[in-house]
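Quick one:
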Amino acid sequence: MNKTISIITVVFNDKDGLERTINSVLTQSYSSLEYIIIDGGSTDGTLNVIKEKQDKISKWISEPDKGIYDAMNKGIKMASSEWLCFMNAGDIFTNECVIEKVFSGDIPKSIDFLYSDIYVLNKKKERIVRKMDFHTGSLIHQCIIYKRKLHDVHGLYVVTPKIIISDFIFFAQIPEESVMKITPIIAVFEGGGISQQGNWAQQQAYCLDVVFRRRTFWGMVTAYTWKRLKALMPSEKKDFIKRHLGLDYKGNDINSSNH
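Output:
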């Protein structure tokens, strides 16, 4: 019996991006697929794009929401498949057969959470591989396919203000033994959304460290500042900064008792 998957697209005022995503989803060769679109009450013509394709869209709604995670939760509640994948407006699958390729692979019954590396587009619109790692929290939804039952166990995404750690709160609860990295790269990430604002993934990982008291607040600030400085400075300056700030190359306090 084929595995079933619900692909959920969250959109707000992005008709062009949505059209690309819809076309990518609808051309997938995998047949056991449900497609859900959650629109936040767009006013730019996005609704017209949905209505033009509504005979091929399984379910859709258009109404105001409290942000991206509220919209995602609506999609989860509407989903009827075993597996979920979020492919938001502007993002596309790597090719027409990637879902079929993922599910044709050997997935042990104990695995509930699949993820891959991801393609990002550079300024020339060339695909560049960005490495993803569950253990460091460097994940984005477009490279993940996971079982809906995880939400039955761990709850829906926490709806929070703009500085959000809902992904990491959810991911942190998933047992490592139920996670598997797969070879097929699932998606092409266009960028430009909230997850591209100032190395969002790393910022949220630091925030989560504070929430779970793995770092102090100032430890988080120091680590993130060092990361930004390290990216900007030539190598000969890094040793100088290291000596005078007392930081190692990962931004940790070398004088800390936990180091």
